[in-house]
Design goal:
The complex is a heterodimer of chains A (116) and B (112). Chain A is mainly β. Chain A has no helices and 11 strands. The chains are: A mainly beta (116), B mainly beta (112).
């Protein structure tokens, strides 16, 4: 069984459309994340949720809205897609102790989003 | 704020060559340090970690030592293989809940 699975793997869409990416983890972790990786491989955190509660919300346009129906799922909805949203989006999970991450992050295999 | 700087890539080596990928950091407090690896078409995987000064993390022949005096966590391997071709990310933990700060990644290509 895949520990962190996200769907779809590829997403090609037109500017202005609304799309969602789904993520599920079966590790029993309490914290989930969304990261964005640009074409130069630079990786930047977007959001993190702990037990369904939003913990980290970096400077991300409000067109991006994460939703966590339960602690095993963290979905990402994007409204009014723009060309600059093209990137690879990674979901990840971890078990966080206190306020620091000493345990490893488990990543999904990524969703390559192409906005035309 | 926290930041991580890795050596510029890409790095191209022949099989069995020695590898060093430099990583330096800026952080408040006492962060944990990590190296993650991303193989083509996959998500990142933890390669090794060190949680305090002078700790050495090691895995699959890779090593890195947490040097607080030089704020560095350089990745080394004595003899690389073609299968080590990947993107390598240095990262540090922060005081924000569960947040890792990643370096910009270094692409490594190993030729037979």
């Amino acid at each position: 069984d895949t520990a962190v699975s996200q769907t779809p793997k590829y997403l090609v869409t037109q500017m202005g459309n609304d799309k969602s990416i789904k993520c599920e983890q079966n590790l029993g972790h309490d914290t989930m994340y969304w990261y964005k990786q640009d074409s130069k491989k630079f990786l930047k955190i977007m959001f993190s949720y702990n037990n369904k509660e939003l913990i980290i919300n970096e400077t991300v346009p409000n067109r991006f809205s994460p939703k966590s129906p339960d602690k095993a799922h963290l979905n990402l909805h994007i409204n009014s897609l723009e060309l600059g949203d093209s990137a690879v989006y990674f979901c990840a999970s971890s078990q966080v102790s206190g306020t620091t991450t000493n345990e490893k992050l488990f990543f999904g295999s990524g969703t390559q989003l192409s906005v035309l | 704020g926290n930041s991580v700087t890795q050596m510029e890539g890409p790095v191209t080596l022949s099989e069995e060559a020695f590898l060093t990928i430099n990583c330096t950091y800026t952080a408040t407090g006492y962060p944990s340090l990590f190296w993650y690896v991303q193989y083509p078409g996959e998500g990142l995987q933890l390669l090794l970690k060190a949680t305090k000064a002078d700790d050495k993390g090691s895995n699959k022949g890779f090593e890195a030592t947490y040097r607080k005096e030089t704020t560095s966590f350089h990745l080394e391997k004595g003899s690389v293989q073609v299968s080590d071709s990947a993107v390598y990310f240095c990262a540090l933990s922060g005081t924000s809940y569960g947040k890792l700060t990643f370096g910009q990644g270094t692409i490594l290509t190993v030729h037979p």
